[in-house]
Amino acid sequence: MIETIDWNKNPLIPAITQDFTTKQILMCAYMNEEALKLSIDTGYMHYYSRSKKRIWKKGESSNHTQQIQKLYLDCDKDAIVGIVHQKGNACHTGEISCFFNDILENKELKTSTNKKSPYDVLDELDNIIKDRKHSSGDTSYTKLLFDKGDNHILKKVSEECGEFICAIKDNDEKEIIYEASDLIYHIMVAMQSKDVSLDRVKGELKKRFSKSGIEEKNGR
User: Fold this and answer.
1) Is 125 helix (H, G, I), strand (E, B) or coil?
2) CA dihedral (40, 43, 45, 48) positive or negative
3) With bands split at pLDDT 50, 70 and 90, how would you rate the model's confidence at 211?
4) What is the pLDDT of residues 49-87, one digit of tens each?
5) Which of 7, 144, 193, 210 is the most buried if burial means most Cβ atoms within 10 Å?
């Protein structure tokens, strides 16, 4: 069947992913010929990243994999639907599905503005750290940390934590900001060394704040 796809005409084709159990549409990405063959051979969804110009396996860093149950090719043979068992969340924001902006309810789309919040900086940094971890021939400081292993990474976290504490005790605002930035960066490296993404921490914080809100509402 896949031999009928004209990859010369359509080097990339959209791939829509649906949850096998809930039937919820999870995400839409793109596949090239190699990504589709890898998906079939491994039984897990692989896509082609247009921004990073490479094949990526869904869940390669977050472990939120998509185990294929069925694959469908549309009548024009230029689109794929994958029916999967989704492990964890499909969306990098921590949502189960990427499709959570309700247009008909007139809710503001989170992607409707070009303004970037400070939180976007952390998302970008998390992606950079993730890329450096898996890159070959990289001579960056981040890659060096990964290459030196857990003990070196944890030593740096401990050092930066101590420097941050000193900045707080010295009441030095400039140093507090500088050392907090260093500490957050090294914590994120440590997390990525164990394939724990920033999105998973955001999800945990979201649950805690939601629970806190309920407790406050109930007067606790």
Assistant:
1) helix
2) negative
3) low
4) 998 899 999 988 888 899 999 999 999 999 999 999 998
5) 193
